[in-house]
């Protein structure tokens, strides 16, 4: 990847970061890691909620972290092939990174954080479409924060987001039916642990009864 194309934008963003108040800088430093934990919280709450829903909802909730894992693995494989040096060492004249520059050998392209964020955002949005208003901005902010703190080029995070999102969507599409079948099987197994993990499922629909009037 030709890092010289986005190096000027990297300089502009890191200069902008150093012009920000210290509390904004600290917030970005926290968010660049904390954001991943918040996605984890959404995975857990999504699974807990899906325990009382249908087999399809449970399958999607369980697939969300699995699909995110696929996104990370593909990103990590690509990172080991490209071997792009981090901009906090490679870009001359750039402002110092707000966080410690990763060691040599921890390559830059693509951004694993962004890949995970993109994959999680898409998987959670598929499982619960109403969450897209939250997960998509979270992923975008996570990606931007990686450039803001100085450890990635803009193209690292852009490709990471798109790669993670694409892999995650593909994984959900391929595994959705098998996961739904597995959820159905687990719920019908009768095992106590399985019953707790999968939940009772959706409550049976109530059938309205028409009562005739006696004359």
From TrEMBL:
Gene3D superfamilies: Phosphatidic acid phosphatase type 2/haloperoxidase. It is a multi-pass membrane protein. It is found in: Cell membrane. It comes from Streptomyces sanglieri. The keyword 4Fe-4S does not apply. InterPro entries: PAP2/HPO, PAP2/HPO_sf. This is Phosphatase PAP2 family protein. Residues 193-215 are annotated as: Disordered. Keywords: Cell membrane, Hydrolase, Membrane, Transmembrane, Transmembrane helix. Residues 206-215 have a biased composition (Basic residues). The chain crosses the membrane at residues 30-50, 57-75, 107-126, 131-151, 157-175. Residues 58-172 form the Phosphatidic acid phosphatase type 2/haloperoxidase domain. Residues 193-205 have a biased composition (Low complexity). The keyword Hydrolase applies.
